[in-house]
């Protein structure tokens, strides 16, 4: 056992046998500064990230002896003899006529610079093996930008089934594939952490085999095994957090209600708010630290519940902290709390990463000497340099943005373990609640404050954008404010930003540059804040944004929202976005612009948005609609806390992972013993090692 003196997160050395996996991608052959950037964009900074960069799908090609054997639309490999090069006339493509074994003619078509390589690869009169998708152009068979051209069949033999990876600007399939191959060569030999009975029942391969085979072709068993590893690691870590918390001692907090009685609220609490506050009070009065999730739809009034909880701590002579995911939100929370608590005399400070120098020093001093009762901020409030006199409660807003355990660990700042209240507006389906929060206690705000109006939601075809802009003009002329949301969906973030910027330019042209602001993820924080502040204060009338406005922004006068390419968002995300309007007494409108070619499922999903405003229902239905039969890799990022496991796999495998984690902890000796040691490696592998730290830190 280690000393118990110092609570908190102390990094323990990662087991050496995982070193090759955690080596930086820069250590691989051929990775220089030029590749580092696009790789980083995809989150591929270490060897293990590459090994786990599983293909989105596979191209499967058929080798045919001649084109009569192939059908249009099919991916093929065929031998062709080059007959003639036709340089482009003007801006047209470069065409190469080629002939198969029985005299069928096929055009190989190249646009732009690709033609230079083609000229070299396909000399007239020579025979070449070509891999690509057979198309028809008028009467002519053609292959546009063949995937591969080779002199002999052998070098295309291995290309009949080829992975297709997610890319970012500056990367090619070939480059990623070769890096992945290098990563796979570096896989260490790891002991099995999966329960042997389960492995056998499922017919799953071992870890390294599963990884290799998941890159080679469709292999459901391999993918499932890898997903299971991730889910098991998560379940195990949450269980460790939970267990450690049970044995920890916190400070029972009993407030006398004196401060809460002085709150300046322009409304009466809803029944759900009162109930949640009672549940929290009950937890706070216990010696074991609270670990509670407050789940409530957007606008359900979580902030005042958080404030009440924090005031209990202050009444008991302690401090409380509120952690927000972004600076904008921290600022807003700070203002709201100051307003509601102005009659209480409670000292509330704001601390973000931007505070430097003397103002920061004075806040740090106040936290240390206890003259500040409540601090609101970003993760800056948990930096090592920040010490509290007596922190007894940590509230974490928009919990889903943070890794649960990590944040809980960061929260270990008090002399004793502080109580923890996590809040989320994400209506997480039950399956996922378990995944994200393990066995946390949950309070639900299942009742909206009275007087909220339904948001009038309409689906509009994108061709009618001019009408929409016209409506927007009337809305703004009438004194209203509005959001215009652009999606983040393209292959590279740069293109998304470009699209948002283009839209911003158009709208600013139309409505005046003073009236329109743009906010996106790559904007410098101070520019972002300035833009947000101008919008919040009413100086700017229209906010063009990517999804950064998703969480928490509160501008009641903004009652119109336009969402472009709405079909590309997850329903839960749309719901969050839409929750930015409908905050005041006025009627609110949300226009969902949709593209032309919609799948049946997309149609149904948008219809559902129109129909209901119940976040839980939307989340459940979304899961159902997207559940069956979707291709690999089509899940939206950010929907789940997992990188490998799809929603479907979560539904199928999570309960098993959860049971198995419990079995390991309760029956099989936890992280000791042979399987326990292996499971420990797994926790490191999936960076859930805070679970391990807990065992030591105590
Ligand atoms: P959430 O964080 O859950 O999305 P907020 O705490 O920001 O919601 O509350 C949304 C809005 O509802 C705020 O303007 C808040 O003042 C108001 N509000 C909260 N509780 C009530 C209530 N019981 N009655 C009326 N309005 C309320
Ligand atoms: Mg909120």
UniProtKB/TrEMBL annotation:
GO molecular function: ATP binding; DNA binding; DNA helicase activity; hydrolase activity
Gene3D superfamilies registered for this protein in UniProt: P-loop containing nucleotide triphosphate hydrolases
Phylogenetic lineage: Bacteria, Pseudomonadati, Pseudomonadota, Alphaproteobacteria, Sphingomonadales
Residues in Helicase ATP-binding domain copies: 283-445
Keyword vocabulary terms for this entry: ATP-binding, DNA damage, DNA repair, DNA-binding, Helicase, Hydrolase, Nucleotide-binding
Coiled coil: none
Protein name: Probable DNA 3'-5' helicase RecG
GO terms under biological process: DNA repair
Stretches assigned to the Helicase C-terminal domain: 464-624
């Amino acid at each position: 056992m280690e000393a118990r003196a110092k609570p908190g997160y102390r990094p323990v050395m990662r087991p050496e046998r995982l070193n090759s996996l955690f080596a930086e991608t820069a250590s691989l052959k051929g990775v220089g500064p030029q590749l580092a950037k696009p790789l980083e964009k995809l989150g591929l900074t270490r060897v293990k990230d590459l090994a786990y960069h599983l293909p989105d799908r596979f191209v499967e090609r058929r080798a045919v002896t001649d084109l009569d054997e192939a059908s249009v639309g099919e991916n093929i490999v065929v031998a062709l003899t080059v007959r003639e090069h036709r340089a482009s006339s003007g801006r047209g493509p470069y065409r190469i006529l080629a002939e198969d074994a029985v005299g069928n003619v096929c055009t190989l078509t190249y646009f732009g610079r690709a033609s230079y390589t083609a000229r070299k690869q396909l000399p007239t009169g020579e025979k070449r093996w070509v891999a690509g998708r057979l198309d028809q152009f008028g009467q002519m068979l053609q292959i546009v930008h063949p995937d591969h051209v080779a002199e002999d069949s052998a070098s295309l033999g291995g290309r009949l089934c080829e992975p297709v990876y997610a890319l970012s600007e500056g990367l090619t399939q070939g480059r990623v594939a070769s890096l992945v191959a290098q990563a796979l060569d570096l896989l260490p030999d790891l002991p099995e952490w999966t329960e042997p009975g389960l492995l056998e029942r499922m017919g799953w391969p071992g870890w390294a085999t599963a990884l290799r085979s998941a890159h080679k072709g469709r292999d459901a068993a391999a993918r499932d095994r890898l997903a299971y590893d991730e889910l098991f690691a998560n379940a195990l870590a949450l269980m460790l957090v939970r267990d450690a918390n049970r044995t920890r001692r916190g400070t029972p907090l009993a407030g006398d209600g004196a401060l809460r009685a002085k709150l300046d609220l322009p409304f009466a609490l809803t029944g759900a708010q009162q109930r949640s506050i009672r549940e929290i009070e009950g937890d706070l009065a216990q010696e074991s630290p609270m670990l509670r999730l407050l789940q409530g739809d957007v606008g359900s009034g979580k902030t005042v519940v958080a404030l009440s909880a924090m005031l209990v701590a202050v009444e008991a002579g302690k401090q409380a902290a509120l952690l927000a995911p972004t600076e904008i939100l921290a600022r807003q929370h700070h203002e709201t709390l100051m307003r509601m608590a102005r009659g209480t005399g409670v000292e509330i400070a704001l601390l973000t990463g931007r505070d430097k120098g003397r103002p920061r020093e004075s806040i740090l001093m106040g936290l240390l000497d206890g003259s500040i009762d409540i601090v609101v901020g970003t993760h800056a409030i948990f930096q090592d340099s920040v010490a509290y006199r007596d922190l007894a409660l940590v509230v974490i807003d928009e919990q889903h943005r943070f890794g649960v355990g990590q944040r809980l660990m960061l929260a270990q700042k008090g002399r004793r373990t502080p109580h923890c209240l996590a809040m989320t507006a994400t209506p997480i389906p039950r399956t996922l609640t378990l995944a994200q929060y393990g066995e946390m206690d949950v309070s639900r705000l299942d009742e909206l404050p009275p007087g909220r109006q339904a948001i009038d939601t309409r689906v509009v075809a994108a061709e009618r954008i001019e009408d929409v802009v016209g409506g927007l003009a009337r809305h703004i002329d009438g004194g209203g404010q509005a959001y215009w949301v652009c999606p983040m969906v393209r292959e590279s973030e740069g293109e998304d930003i470009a699209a948002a910027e283009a839209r911003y330019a158009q709208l600013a042209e139309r409505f005046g540059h003073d009236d329109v602001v743009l906010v996106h993820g790559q904007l410098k924080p101070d520019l972002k804040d300035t833009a947000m502040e101008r919008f919040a204060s009413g100086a700017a009338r229209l906010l063009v944004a990517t999804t950064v406005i998703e969480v928490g922004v509160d501008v009641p006068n903004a009652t119109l929202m336009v969402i472009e390419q709405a079909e590309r968002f997850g329903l839960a995300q749309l719901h969050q976005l839409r929750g930015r309007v409908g905050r005041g007494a006025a009627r609110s409108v949300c226009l969902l612009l949709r593209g032309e070619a919609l799948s049946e499922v997309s149609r149904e999903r948008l219809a559902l948005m129109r129909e209901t405003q119940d976040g839980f229902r939307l989340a459940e239905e979304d899961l159902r609609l997207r559940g069956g039969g979707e291709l690999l890799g089509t899940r939206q990022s950010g929907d789940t806390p997992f990188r490998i496991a799809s929603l479907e796999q979560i539904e199928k495998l999570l309960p098993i992972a959860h049971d198995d984690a419990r079995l390991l902890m309760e029956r099989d000796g936890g992280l000791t013993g042979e399987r326990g040691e292996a499971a420990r490696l797994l926790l490191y592998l999936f960076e859930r090692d805070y679970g391990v730290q807990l065992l030591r830190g105590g």
